[in-house]
Amino acid sequence: MADRRAELERLAREAGGDWLAVAQLARALVLASRADLVLDVGVGPGIVTLWLADAVDETGGHLVVLERDPAAIERLAAHVDSLGLAERVQVLLGDAHRTIRTIAGTIAFVRLAADRAGYTDYLRQLLDRLRPGAVIMAEG
């Protein structure tokens, strides 16, 4: 666990910018809400996604990732495997406006980080699948 956290911090620092702070916030929100089903819309460099995967490993939950870029998914998969988190992560390739409809279960935490103009559509599709008290984190 400590080795994984050190690797997550290293990857975030390597990515630069505010990725470490955003990732730590996302992880803290998942842990505080005891989220068991987490949805991540848009991978980007994958830093926040990895921290979400680490958080659901601690909560015993599951992370569903929606991403349309095969290269981003390939990079993410390599890190997820090396960090021992593969059993906690499901990746759906394609347009999130369509793949979001296939998610089963009650969602406890949502991170929106893709197609900012589409945030309203994502939320409209999720409203009846959010658990009471669900946390929504939208990146601008």
Explain what you see.
The chain is α/β, with parallel strands linked by helices and 140 residues long. Helices cover 47% and strands 22% of the residues. The protein is built from six helices and five strands, in the order ααβαβαβαβαβ. The chain has helices at 2-15, 19-32, 47-59, 70-82, 96-99, 119-126; strands at 37-41, 62-67, 89-93, 107-112, 130-138. The chain has a five-stranded parallel beta sheet with strand order 3-2-1-4-5, sandwiched between helices. β4, α6 (119-126) and β5 (130-138) form a beta-alpha-beta unit. α1 (2-15) runs antiparallel to α3 (47-59) and α2 runs parallel beside α3 (47-59). The longest helix is centred in the first third of the chain and has 14 residues, at 2-15. It is globular, with a radius of gyration of 14 Å. The mean pLDDT is 95.
